């Protein structure tokens, strides 16, 4: 039963420390001695409209914190505690929470919605709260229910969809939720709070709506309601509707074609005249379309241009009207945008989108942007000059060098003069544009550079003068010097062009690093990073050897300390500092250093587990570079191995990075330039990714499986008389089996039937390998394991596949007679899986 805890909850918020501590102790004792009673008492407190707001607020906070935590280990502990509570207590708690959704106190119903979703995240995947969706939908469908209850219910549905995965609901439940949500969004809904809650709920439910979006009639209705909602009179509702469109752009790109004229009209009007919060989402829609089309272009097979993903070329089609719309946004700057970190405004969003458009369409953007640049670059209004410079800098990646070089060569002197502009915003953007030019169009090693012996002195003179400017300008100048110096690396005779200027450059950077007028450490960090780039290039080999050795030492220490419970906390305490050091090491151009750093990062990922996720955003660019390093193929192979380490550490939290990673891996496999030794690790990595993300690997099946099948056919034709080829063949076969194992295990609990069409090919490959008596023992282990995984995943479906395959019995018999205990154990398990599959068939 619930106990009266109001006074304790109020006292726990007392300004008097002794009163507060005594109340907190009492509450803690209650929780430790009787958790079910404690949680029930909190839920009753939260449900009672007669209780003080302060006690109800704290009751809700404690309830949420008793069900969820950021730390994975703590969260798992809380889940297990909830699962262990007697069902009668859980039923009472859930009833109280559902009752609270009808509270007239908004804060209480809002908190209850969050707590219901937390419980749903535990129970719905376990099929322990099957009536939840029905109970919530009853609030929406029964007559005379107050608007406040509908609002709280829609909020709850949104939170629940956010917490669970789309496999946790049956399609009838999804249909009912979408019906309720879309009904709540409709223009006929008079209550704006209900309409906002419904629109927010749809955003969270979109991932569940795949079947509905495949149905043209349902899709048309959903899109009509969203587009209508984007015209609501309330700003928050319009913003939420555009957020839905942004999500749809990436989730359902392939069905957008019929709706694009209306969406263009909506986004265009929002950008031109709506509140900034709405306009930002309108621009984000087009950025998302660019992301999708860039990804499709990356997936295209270089030889044929084919891609199994549909490419609608929305950006190309919209270009003549989209680009002018984006250029107009560049004129909507904030006065303080360069001084403050974290500012995101319409001008910045427009420039970012313009850069994505340039990468998507290439040369076609140049004639649409350059007239804007030419008209505004000399305007008396600083906003026009800054916008023109920003537009110029934004389109430098994407178009060809042939298209860019004339305009960059013509504009370079103008930009150098603009570093003396009276307005600091113009100088800031000009310095950024110069750094972009030096990063993208200054590569003497490849035979092209906008910097020549004739203009180098002039460029450096301007930069070393401008580095004394305001901190935010000086920071961008450091970036320009960094890329200027980096371009001369490995440039043969051209490298010496910078030598006469080094004393002045180094002196300026040291003075800049010691400046005290910056509000934060960004300028100092940028100056030191540039110093490191310039100094390192002089003695790079010696420094590289030392850095490689230190990375190796750290890797061994991480591995040793993280294997024992008593020493693992040491690694966790210093993980942030270690990772920062590793990231800095990538500034070194030595492949040996990159190899050792990657290996050490793999060890750190294993040691830190899910916590490694916080490093991924910064580390991903280096992982991407490593996976594309065909020339130094050992770095590429190790980078691919680190992807596997990260998948094992993060599990499904690696999902946001998987599109990019799979694109890189598939391009690697398609390349004729990449050393063959990298290909086996890539196949193994497919298995690691599939195991981590489970059913989400489905989107890659049509790309990965043909590659694996093609590689297995290569194995069949290999010349085993050559010892080196035989070793490679063994590596390749083992990795293909490991890939199949990971994919089968990943799909086992959700979509095993996806692998049915591919099973005959796998069995054929297994038979081929089983007949090869020269195979390596590691291949045998991988083969017998994947046979077990096939039976485990496909269950009764395997009977018809295996019954004509006499090799299975012979192969298993051979493995069961092995002297290797591990092989024997795996074979026994596989035999059991096949036996179970046959017994299920009857």
Automatic annotation (TrEMBL):
GO biological process, one term: protein import into nucleus
SMART domains reported for this sequence: ARM (SM00185), IBN_N (SM00913)
This protein's record includes keyword Metal-binding: no
Keyword Nuclease: no
One function term, GO molecular function aspect: small GTPase binding
Source organism per UniProt: Sesamum calycinum
Annotated PANTHER family: IMPORTIN BETA
Localisation per UniProt entry: Cytoplasm; Nucleus envelope
Domain Importin N-terminal: 23-103
Entry coiled-coil feature ranges: none
Main location: cytoplasm
Record-linked Pfam families: HEAT_EZ, IBN_N, TPR_IMB1, TPR_IPO5
PROSITE patterns according to UniProt: IMPORTIN_B_NT
Protein family membership: Belongs to the importin beta family. Importin beta-1 subfamily.
Protein's recorded name: Importin subunit beta-1
GO CC terms of this entry: cytoplasm; nuclear envelope
Keywords: Cytoplasm, Nucleus, Protein transport, Repeat, Transport
């Amino acid at each position: 039963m619930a106990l009266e805890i109001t006074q304790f909850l109020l006292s726990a918020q007392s300004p008097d420390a002794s009163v507060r501590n005594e109340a907190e102790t009492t509450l803690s004792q209650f929780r430790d001695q009787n958790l079910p009673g404690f949680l029930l008492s909190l839920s009753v407190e939260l449900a009672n409209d007669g209780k003080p707001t302060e006690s109800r607020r704290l009751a809700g906070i404690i309830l949420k914190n008793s069900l969820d935590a950021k730390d994975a280990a703590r969260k798992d502990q809380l889940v297990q505690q909830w699962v262990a509570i007697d069902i009668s207590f859980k039923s009472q708690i859930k009833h109280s929470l559902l009752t609270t959704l009808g509270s007239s106190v908004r804060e209480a119903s809002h908190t209850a919605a969050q707590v219901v979703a937390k419980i749903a995240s535990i129970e719905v995947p376990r099929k322990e709260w099957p009536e939840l969706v029905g109970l919530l939908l009853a609030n929406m469908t029964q007559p005379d229910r107050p608007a406040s209850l509908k609002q709280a219910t829609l909020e709850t549905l949104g939170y629940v969809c956010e917490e669970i995965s789309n496999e946790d609901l049956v399609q009838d439940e999804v249909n009912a939720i979408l019906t309720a949500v879309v009904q709540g969004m409709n223009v006929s809904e008079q209550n704006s709070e209900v309409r906002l809650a419904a629109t927010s709920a749809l955003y969270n439910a979109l991932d569940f709506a795949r079947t509905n979006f495949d149905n043209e009639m349902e899709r048309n209705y959903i899109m009509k309601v969203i587009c209508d909602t984007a015209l609501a009179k309330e700003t928050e509702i319009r913003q939420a509707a555009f957020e839905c469109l942004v999500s749809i752009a990436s989730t359902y790109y392939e069905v957008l074609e019929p709706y694009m004229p209306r969406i263009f009209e909506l986004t265009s009007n929002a950008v031109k005249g709506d509140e900034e919060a709405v306009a930002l989402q309108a621009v984000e829609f087009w950025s998302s379309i660019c992301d999708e089309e860039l990804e499709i272009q990356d997936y295209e097979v270089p030889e044929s241009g084919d891609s199994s993903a549909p490419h609608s070329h929305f950006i190309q089609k919209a270009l003549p009207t989209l680009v002018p719309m984006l250029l107009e946004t560049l004129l909507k700057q904030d006065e303080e945008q360069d001084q403050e970190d974290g500012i995101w405004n319409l001008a910045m969003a427009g420039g970012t989108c313009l850069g994505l458009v340039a990468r998507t369409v290439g040369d076609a953007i140049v004639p649409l942007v350059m007239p804007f640049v030419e008209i505004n670059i000399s305007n008396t209004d600083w906003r026009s000059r800054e916008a023109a410079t920003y537009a110029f800098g934004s389109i430098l990646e994407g178009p060809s060098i042939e298209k860019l070089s004339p305009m960059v060569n013509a504009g370079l002197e103008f930009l150098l003069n603009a570093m003396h502009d009276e307005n600091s915003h113009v100088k800031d953007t000009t310095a950024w544009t110069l750094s972009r030019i030096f990063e993208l169009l200054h590569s003497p090693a490849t035979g092209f550079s906008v910097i020549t012996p004739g203009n180098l002195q002039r460029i450096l003179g301007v930069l070393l003068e401008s580095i004394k400017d305001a901190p935010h300008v000086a920071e961008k100048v450091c970036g320009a010097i960094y890329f200027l110096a980096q371009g001369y690396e490995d440039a043969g005779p051209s490298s010496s062009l910078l030598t006469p200027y080094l004393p002045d450059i180094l002196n300026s950077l040291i003075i800049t690093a010691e400046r005290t007028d910056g509000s934060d450490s960004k300028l100092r960090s940028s100056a030191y990073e540039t110093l490191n780039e310039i100094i390192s290039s002089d003695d790079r080999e010696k420094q590289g050897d030392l850095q490689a050795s230190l990375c190796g030492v750290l890797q061994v220490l991480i591995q040793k300390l993280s294997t024992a419970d008593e020493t693992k906390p040491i690694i966790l305490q210093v993980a942030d500092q270690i990772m920062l050091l590793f990231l800095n090491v990538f500034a070194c151009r030595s492949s040996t250093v990159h190899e050792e750093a990657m290996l050490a990062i793999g060890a750190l990922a294993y040691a830190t587990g899910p916590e490694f996720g916080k490093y991924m955003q910064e580390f991903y660019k280096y992982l991407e570079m490593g996976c594309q390093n065909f020339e130094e193929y050992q770095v590429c192979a190790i980078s691919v191995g680190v992807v596997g380490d990260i998948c094992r550490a993060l599990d499904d939290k690696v999902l946001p990075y998987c599109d990019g990673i799979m694109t890189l891996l598939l391009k690697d496999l398609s390349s004729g330039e990449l050393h063959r030794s990298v290909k086996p690790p890539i196949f193994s990595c497919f298995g690691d990714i599939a195991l981590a993300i489970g059913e989400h690997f489905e989107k890659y099946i049509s790309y990965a499986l043909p590659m694996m099948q093609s590689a297995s056919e290569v194995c069949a034709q290999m010349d085993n008389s050559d010892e080196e080829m035989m070793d490679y063949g063994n590596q390749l076969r083992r990795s293909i089996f490991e890939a199949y194992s990971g994919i089968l295990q990943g799909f086992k609990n959700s979509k095993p039937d996806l692998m049915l069409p591919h099973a005959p090919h796998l069995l054929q490959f297994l038979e081929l390998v089983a007949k090869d008596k020269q195979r390596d023992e590691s291949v045998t282990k991988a083969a017998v394991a994947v046979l077990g995984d096939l039976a485990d995943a496909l269950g009764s479906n395997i009977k018809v596949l295996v019954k004509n395959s006499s090799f299975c019995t012979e192969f298993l018999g051979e493995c069961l007679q092995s002297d290797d205990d591990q092989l024997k154990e795996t074979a026994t398990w596989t035999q059991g899986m096949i036996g179970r599959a046959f017994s299920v068939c009857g």
